[in-house]
Structure of VOC family protein:
Amino acid sequence: MTTRLNPYISFRDNAREALEFYHGVFGGDLNMSTFADYQASQDPADAEKIMHGQIDAPGGMTLMASDTPSSMDVADASNITVSLSGDDESELRGYWDKLSDGASVTMPLEKAPWGDYFGQLTDRFGIGWLINISGQGA
């Protein structure tokens, strides 16, 4: 098996909502398991929260997420940004448009000094995203 690097995002109570949103953005297969599914909840309030969720999207992209149990602190997401880059303008603009729904756009998706199209936003779940469209056709 090839080694892969992919984002794993931690949420407090809205991993299901976030995963369903990202599934709408990226498509592919979505699988979610709750803490109750594996009898892994010490707090009954955590039972139906997502212990592990995974989207396997076309093109080999994988995005994972889970809810953080109430007994643990949630990691600060401000020091991580998810980057999407490539030369498929239509695909990347489509991701941008969908991720922008309810987002705070920090930098609009526009021509950058290095010649690519680049944009940055923080989505409705507080996750930072960078999109870079490379190539002459952008």
The chain has a mean pLDDT of 92.
